[in-house]
Amino acid sequence: MERTNQFVGSSLAFLDAVERASRAAPLNRPVLVIGERGTGKELIAERLHHLSGRWAGPLVTMNCAALPENLIEAELFGHEAGSFTGAAKTRHGRFEEADGGTLFLDELASLSSPAQDRLLRAVEYGEITRIGASRPIQVDVRIVAATNEHLPRLVDEGRFRADLLDRLSFEVVTLPPLRARQGDIPLLAEHFGRRMAVELEWSNWPGFSDKIKQAFETYPWPGNVRELRNTVERAVYRAEDPEREIDAVQFDPFHSPWAPADSASGQPEVAHPPMVASTAPAAATLAPPTEVSDLRSAVNSYERALLEDALGKSRFNQRATAAALGLSYDQLRHALKRHKLLDAAQG
């Protein structure tokens, strides 16, 4: 199983978006791809290119948000030697690199106003002018652009050119968020899980427990497919026994009892419930104190109570306790040592 990007899903919302892209692919027209982060906008751009008559030409990608505003135009359209400080030699821009192929502009909404003006002329007339040059250059480029912004609203706010939007929106493919893709989450989780098991050279794929599958279905996935992939792969590689169903997953990799203090208050952040599902008994069932006069002391006391409760429910088995709390074994040992509970624990 090669670790390559591919479409996985069977929901109507997802298949409709893919079908719309497939039908637009052979046409030599611009396409806008709209969607939240992690929904697969670049995959759609690749599909539009490879199913078009330009498939043998270059597919050039540029993230418009990755460069300072004063460099975007030079990156897109190129520059002549000596046209500005640091321009030691003539450089071709992304448009020239994509000549005969497709130019994918990610994060389109972040383009500066001058860059929008130049892009409008390139789309309208198929010509660009390098910075510092006096003559335009003809280019044959198909534009595919992506954003997670609502461009008509940006037009109303004066932040995006209406005429540029008109020229780029021959077809608009809007990708559904993962939470709207009915039935696709189990398919994707299984796909990413199996792929990670192969990477780890497991001889068998044990699958996920029913409770973990349910947790996947109910989580909102703000980072969409990209977040799901990271979560699944993290759960697989952390599993201690490749022969047993995976029964623990941490949705928030930043959750930790030892997270840095809140920079605004200078106090330790109150621990949020870990986004962890497990078939082990849930340990965090104690109610936090309702009246607090010393936050640091209250947090420490509450953490100790949670540890003691989890140890008791796990019959003082430290590995089971760590799984119930969503901690690694070393993290649990560190916490027990801090609260002087090591002597009471065993296993």
Question: What does it look like?
Answer:
This protein is of the alpha/beta class and 347 residues long. It has 13 helices and 9 strands. It has helices spanning 12-24, 41-50, 69-77, 94-97, 113-125, 151-156, 162-168, 184-199, 210-218, 224-238, 295-313, 318-325, 329-338; strands spanning 31-34, 59-63, 102-106, 127-128, 137-138, 142-147, 171-174, 248-250, 276-278. The strands form 3 sheets. The chain has a 5-stranded parallel β-sheet with strand order 2-3-6-1-7. Strands 4-5 form a two-stranded antiparallel ribbon. The protein has a two-stranded antiparallel sheet with strand order 8-9. The longest helix has 19 residues, at 295-313. It is elongated. It starts with 11 loop residues before the first helix and ends in a 9-residue tail after the last helix. The model is unreliable at 267-284 (pLDDT under 50).
